[in-house]
Write a structure and sequence with these properties.
The complex is a heterodimer of chains A (406) and B (396). Chain A is an alpha+beta fold and 406 residues long. Chain A contains 14 helices and 11 strands. In chain B, helix 3 packs across helix 7. The radius of gyration of chain B is 21 Å and the shape is globular. The chains are: A alpha+beta (406), B alpha+beta (396). At the A-B interface, helix 7, strand 9, helix 9, helix 11 and helix 12 of A face helix 9, helix 10 and helix 12 of B.
Chain lengths: 406, 396
Amino acid sequence: MYNLRLSSEQLEIRDTVRDFVEREIKPVCLKAERLEALDRRLPMDLLEEASQLGLRTLALSEERGGAGADALTSCIVTEELAAGDPDIAATLAETSALARTLFDQLMSQGQRDRFLPQFLRDDRYHLAFADREPGNDDTLGVNYHRPETSDTPIKTSAVRAGNVWVIDGVKDCVANAPVAKLIAVRARTGTKGVSTLLVPRETPGLSVREHDPAEGWAHGPCGEVVFKDCRVPAENLLDQELERTDRGGWFQALNLGIGRAAHDAALDYAKLRVQGGRRIIEHQAIGAKLAGIAIRLEVARSIVWQAAWASDHPEAVADRSLADLPHAIIARVFTSEAVYHAVKDAAECFGAMGVMRDMPLQKYVHDALVCLHPGHGASEAKLRIAEALAGYRRHPAPPVRIAESI
Amino acid sequence: MDFSLNEEQRSWQVKARKFALEEIRPISLARDAIPDPREAFDWEIIKKGSRLGFRTMAVPRKWGGQGTDFVTQALVMAELAKADSAISKTFSQCWKWSHLIAAVCTDEQKERFLKPFLADDTFLLGKGISEPNAGSDNRLPPADDPRAGLKLRAERKGDEWILNGEKCFIANASVGKLFFIDARTNPDVPLREGTTMFMVPRDTPGFRIGKVFNKSGWRFYQNGEMIFENARVPHANVVGRANASDMKSQGGDRTGGDIFGDLELAANALGVCEDACEQALAYARTRTQGGKPLFEQQLVQLKLNRMHMLTEALRSFVLRVAWEHDQKMHSTNPGLAMNFSTDVIQEVTELNLEIHCDADGGMDRRADKLVRDSFIWSHLAGDSVQRMKVARRLAK
């Protein structure tokens, strides 16, 4: 059975978020001073309002106080938010995805009791996952289809000292780090290998340095996290390891939202702007360009939704309804290329105004470029797909991954 | 066929390369990063370049310029653009209009304008065509809408013309001393028949510069607003005949104006592509991943191959077009080369960014700048109007 009908809840939440974006986000985020790609402050008030709408806790289960949204619903919400502002969308999506993984899947009852009430109460409580370390390259480009690994081992260490873990090390490019009140950190824990520990933001010995937006190449707040003789109670260790090899599944939905914002802007403009004796949409050259933008976005949305649905319905792969492929990665690669092209074409519809920094189009171009080249081996995504096609298995027993879980 | 450069061409190329490397490149990124677009400009580099002849090299020798040929001009544009595309364009913008002065201005006008231009290292030129509601309409006036196109009005009053209206995106607006301004002298006939070109000095009464546009790329290059409020321009400043701003229709030198502009954008793109290729290759050789140079990866090799293939194809096209200019041959090649340069500069700079971003989480500032600069080609050189315009030349 093939069904693309959204539930009434999904339609309702989409309308609510779209309305919120039109009413609250766009008037703030499309102001000229926020369009400068290199000078973006995170609008904390809007994040708080979004949290009151339930968007910060969207994917957290209903029994634990969230909305229990599935991956498809999360994608729909993220696309809507990103059409207004990708930074807001990324911050909320990261926290929401981590809330589900941490509170619903990984924490013990005791850990939940300690952290969940604060998380639910505080609209400015965000979550971060500190995984990547400086100089820690992705090496699939080197090790494609080769069993040997030259992955740099994790340098951050957690050493047990009585009733506490003492954490030392540096993590970089940590999404949400500047706004997170709870950070899950991967660290080497003696001979046991690698574990994940929960570190509240106010813990002595933990410091966060926000990336200079001028050097930033990310959506949402991002920063370096330094642990220096940072002590957390022994019970902050998670039983299971949290690992993420890919950006979250929400990433391609965010990318799609950027494309849609550009599409909407170009379409509106093409209906208004008169050159050549008629509205420019009435010229074949612009009409075909807009059609091309729409085609790219519609196909991208199909693959994003399919990947989200596949993660909501793992049984669909088991019963051979869907091929056993890394759908999320396929969706991400296709969407990033399709949206970049679409956004460039949309900007071209604006002529010279399309290159101005105080117009939204250059912001969309920049935002789409960040998705196209998010860094850290993005082009390796295709190699990962190729290994999957070949049936090559790199990790025999994958740990819990946010990428696939949302 | 002989692809070799002569002594003079090589010496200009070497001089431009040295100036680009020693003077332009060191300031390029810092200028690009200045938030206020007006402040991104720098007079020092203009003066230094002018003293070496890069501002006036297109003026014929008999009028006191260097009288370089088009191959030399293409080589110099590419060398300068390799260090900074926008700074190269600021210089070549002066060549574009010095071609025009030399070709169609009267001797009296040359005395008044070409001589001060040659004498003053800070004398920059610009041309005003675009207006808020007239961009594509000026390039490709619609047959069925004779009123379309620029609206700036010029009315004769004795020995003067009174100009009213505004221009936007005008090159060198905030720094130029003399502008070639297209104005409607007969609003009731199609653009090409009712437009006159005027030389408007910076200090013309009733003429002022508005804001400088805040572009994403070409930050150094000043594109500004011009406001004319009863601006008074002497009749002696009319370029060519009234109601015939299109120099081609006046039998002016076809290698001036628009057609040089086509070569100009293609040659500038070539320099940017060379920069991207060199950066990417150097990075691939030195940056390691998993202990091995990036260059060892097949995907990186394929990207580098494509970047160089496209760049060398563009180089061939640019030099052929420049040579054809020098032979006084006329064809659609300059336009096609300009269109092609859009596709090439964008793909090549995007691949360079990709090679950098893939290995590093953060962006590389220069790789990012080249992509932003290349975006300018979208509306100047490779938009559908610029492509259809060339196609229509083909069908003529």
